[in-house]
Amino acid sequence: MFEFTTDFQSINDTTIVFRLLLAIVLGGVIGFERGKSGRPAGFRTHILVCLGSTMAMMTNQFIFQEYGISDPTRIAAQVISGIGFLGAGTIIVTGKHQVKGLTTAAGLWATACMGLAIGIGFYKAAILSCIFIFFVTVVLHRLDNSLLSKSKVMDLYIEFSSAAVISYVAEEIRSDMIKIESIEIVKPVYGNVKTVAAILTIRLKQKRVRLDVVTKICEIEGVEFAEEL
Description:
Elements: H1 13-36, H2 43-67, H3 74-82, H4 84-90, E1 92-93, E2 99-100, H5 102-120, H6 123-150, E3 153-160, H7 166-174, E4 178-186, E5 189-190, E6 193-194, E7 196-204, H8 210-218, E8 223-228
Helix pairs in contact: 1-2, 1-5, 1-6, 2-3, 2-5, 4-5, 5-6
């Protein structure tokens, strides 16, 4: 039978329910933002990660509390290292050699740590970490985009009609007051179709609208496709 108590630090009926509910709420807050952004690990994934790590920590505390044995931090250490396989699954390298999913992977790891804090009864740290994780993924994401939009350095993915036009296109880009910092030739395959492409890091010598730069590069003869990474 369920017994209510005001002791929120030890393992009992009240703390089991409270900690699991708190894990659902805080994990859901972080996961909701990721899911709304169309990320592979969204609302349910973050809740499950937070619930699982909370359960792991509570189980460790229960063993220590009931039997007086076991290191209370042992399972927590395994959770921290084990969550890596799930985070790695959200990181992908696109056909354009662009890495995506790093923020989501880091968010899952941070959510697991938050669950461990809930599981051991470190409520203040868990709630504050939820606020800060949400701040980083939402507010700082917008700030990061704002800073990138004002930067004179751009990473571009360009597909060419043939390898022979790469030098010509590079010269055309340089003649437009743009410095090419680096160029990497890649050969992406779309189904059975092979094409020639390059990833360029360029530096604008004057402040310009980034979309206009991409549009102008698309107009160069021999350029099939171009976009900013």
